[in-house]
Write a structure and sequence with these properties.
Blueprint (H helix, E strand, L loop, with lengths): L2 E2 L4 E6 L5 H12 L2 E4 H5 E2 L3 E2 L2 H12 L4 E4 L8 H4 L2 E5 L3 H18 L11 H4 L5 H22 L4 E4 L2 H9 L1 E2 L4
Parallel strand pairs: 1-9, 2-6, 2-7, 3-6, 7-8
Antiparallel strand pairs: 4-5
Helix pairs in contact: 5-7
Length: 179
């Protein structure tokens, strides 16, 4: 059974490699609205992080739109929770996240996939202290503790999916209001 989505601004959060971007893109395509990837606003070429002020200014400009699906957490520094009508939390077990980050990183390294602003993952970076795999080990449990606290302070309704199957089933029920 399909149902119309009743939200104009959806924020998708989760730990690194939980599938936020893929899920957000799929939802944005289904409801025909803009997809905003916060990582692309934060990372300039050569993986240079912009200042928090610059990041917040970029995010504020993008999030001023009427309809969007945004992915990224950034401890809500972009104030995306307050601007959203719905927050979707992809809260998957560590084994799923670890498998995804390993698979995705190796694929990106070998096909030289550009993420944003000319940035690419490299074999050298994959085996360094700056590795996205290391980042998952450093942040996974911290983010899982932080997110319920952040959501507890937020009045925006939210959904929590604890397995990719739940997220896929929900997404499969979404249809565009204009259809």
């Amino acid at each position: 059974m399909s149902h119309e989505i009743r939200y104009n601004r959806v924020c998708v959060i989760g730990t690194t490699a939980s599938g936020k971007t893929r899920f957000a893109r799929s939802l944005a395509e289904r409801i025909r609205c803009e997809h905003i990837e916060l990582d692309a606003l934060y990372h300039d070429p050569n993986w240079t992080a912009v200042s928090w002020n610059e990041f917040c200014n970029r995010a504020e400009a993008k999030l001023a739109g009427e309809r969007w699906v945004c992915d990224g957490y950034y401890a809500n520094r972009a104030r995306q929770f307050e601007k959203a009508d719905l927050i979707v939390w992809l809260d998957y077990p560590f084994r799923i996240v670890l498998f995804r980050v390993l698979r995705r990183t190796l694929r990106r390294v070998f096909i030289h996939e550009e993420l944003w602003n000319g940035n690419r993952e490299t074999l050298r970076k994959t085996f360094s202290r700056e590795s996205i795999v290391v980042w998952v080990f450093q942040t996974y449990w911290k983010r899982r503790r932080e997110m319920p606290v952040m959501l507890g302070y937020c009045e925006t309704p939210h959904l929590r999916f604890q397995h990719p199957r739940e997220a896929r089933e929900w997404l499969g029920q979404i249809k565009n209001p204009s259809n």
